[in-house]
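## retry 2 of 3
previous attempt timed out at serialization; input unchanged, resubmitting
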Amino acid sequence: MLRRLFLGIAILLAGNCNVGYSDILANWTFETSIPTTSGPHTAEGGVNALTSVASSNTGGTFSNPSGNGSVESFSSNNWDAGEYFQFISSTVGFTGVTLTWDQTGSNTGPRDFQLSYGTDGVTFTNFTTSYSLPGPVAVGWNPTTANASLSTSFNADLSAFTTLDNSAQVFFRLAQVGTTSINAATVAATGTGRVDNFVINATAVPEPTSMALIGMVGVVGLAVRYRRKNASSTVAV
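## retry succeeded, writing output
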C-alpha cells in the first residue's frame, strides 16, 4: 500500500508540479522590433517578453544592420564614455540570473564596455571588470551565418547576486568605458556599437505545493524503507 502511495505521489509531482527549472525570461533578437530609434524595443521571446524592453542613450543615429547570423541587430553611432545599451525585465518567481549576448562594432566604434546591474534604474553595480570587443579589426557579422568565433559572444553568471532574485524589475547595462576604439585609436562620432541576441535566463522558484509534495515523498520513502527493514529482520519461528 505504501509503495503504491509513494509511486502515485511521485507521478503527480513529476507531471503537475513546478519544482524549479531554467527558463528564458527575455530574449532580444531585434527581428521584429527592428530598431531605428533609441527604444524602448520589446523582447522577441521569453516568459516576460511583452513587459521586457531594450533601449540606448547614446543620442546618435540608430539602425538595424546585420545581426550575428540574423537579419537585424541594435546599433548606434556617436558614442561617449558612460553611454550604454540597457535591458529591463522582471524576475518575479525566478532566481539565479544569467546573461548571454553578442556584441561588436565598427573599427572606429567603442572597444571597452562594462556590464552593470540594478533594480531601480538609478543605482547600478558593476559586474567584475570591464571587457573589450576584439580588434584591431572589428569582427563582422552577416545575416545568414553566425560567427563561429566566440570573440563576440559574452556571458555573465549573476546567480550569486540575490538582489536580482524575485524582483519586479531588473536593469542591465552595457556601458562604454573610456574612449578607445576597436582599432585601438579614438572613438569617432561615426563609429558604431552593435548588440544582438541578448538573453536573460533564470530558474523558477518552486511553488509551495511542490515543496510540500517533495516533503511527502520523502516521508513516504522513509516509511517504505522502515517497513522493508523491519520485514527483513523478522525471523520465523
